[in-house]
Amino acid sequence: MSATEYTWRDSELHSRPLLALNWAGARLARFGHPVPSLTPSSVTAAAAKAAGSDDFGSDSYREPLEVYLRACEDEAELTTFGRLLISKMLASALANRIELHRWSLDHPEVRDEQIVSPWVIVGLPRTGTSLLSLLLGLDPVARPLLQWEAAHPIPPVTLEEAAEDPRIARSAKDLRGLMKLNPPLKAMHPFGATLAEECIALFMYDVRSIALETQAHVPTYARWLEQADMAPAFAQHRLALQTLQSRQPTERWILKTPYHLWNLGALCAAYPDARITWTHRDPGPVVASLASLANAGQRPLTSRDDPRPTAEEWRRKCAFGLNAAMAFDEASEAGWCQHLQYDALMADPLEAVRQLYRNFGEEVGRLHERRMKAFLEHRPQDAFGRHRYDPADFGWTYAGLATEFKEYTERYHIGTPISP
Known about the structure:
The chain is mainly α and about 425 residues long. It has helices at about 15-30, 40-50, 60-75, 80-105, 130-135, 145-150, 165-180, 185-190, 200-205, 220-225, 230-245, 265-270, 285-300, 310-330, 340-345, 350-360, 365-380, 400-405, 405-410, and strands at about 5, 120, 140-145, 250-255, 275-280, 340, 385.
């Protein structure tokens, strides 16, 4: 039986109640009353109500929140449902921030936790980062951030309760609802309450994250974020890891997000002993896939039909991130990271992991090796469908993308770009 194929077009909103909500909301908006409110005060009030406190620890979140919400109003063309979802997403992230801060005040010892030599994967999406993080996470002495933990970090779960915490079921229910609303997402990105989560989720607590741009077309916020100080976001990132680790000790975290490419200086300042791996792949399919994924994420929330503005924004974003990373690489001492080619990882995942360990002066343990072999042997292929994307949907060709990213592919000896 062949897998179902999905494109960004399949993310069209079909729910009749939500379509009716959008229709009613559009009529109200014509009279100057868009609902719900997308003001900083309304979002922070919702966060404070959910958390039972209005102590955010600091106001570092305030400027990015204001910039993002203004961009949502001016640029995103959100529907009423989109406004509801964005408001809820931000309030939830800020409620997590409040709860994390309160926990650290009540349990000051968490700040003494040491985050030692974390594995950090920094390649662009679709470059093998998910597979690599899953394989590294099978090491018995290491662990990734889990999706349910990022969504509901407080209180940090204990070892005794880890397998049956009710927040796991809550997160699984939320994810099932998301997949029902937008089925193509399950073929485009791994979702699961107990699956590894990108650590970019922790930057949401400070409203400094490109994850926010997957939900809405907000180029003004994107430009602000590219120049923003990421130290406050990394402070939230570290505190969350320290808090989770305080009840579930681990020798090493497995961290992953493409967003680190944009902020390698801040990453190295926050975790100077990090074991950084940069995965590389021909940017053509990467950028085309990202354009499709971003449109799929935004399509149920916006009235805009044209996919090209979002696609162009993410093409520009990838170029910016790669240029920033190449500049950092040029200025840094050799060995600050390990480079891993996507083709090599796909051809022999086990050997790729073994080589990474050797590069850091270690060997893969016997149990880790057995776990990786078992995982690869039984790993389902296209279990949730297949993501299909075409650069022509966005007015591009693979030849044109190859020319645009030629400096990157030549510098890192990336294989021949795919044909147009």
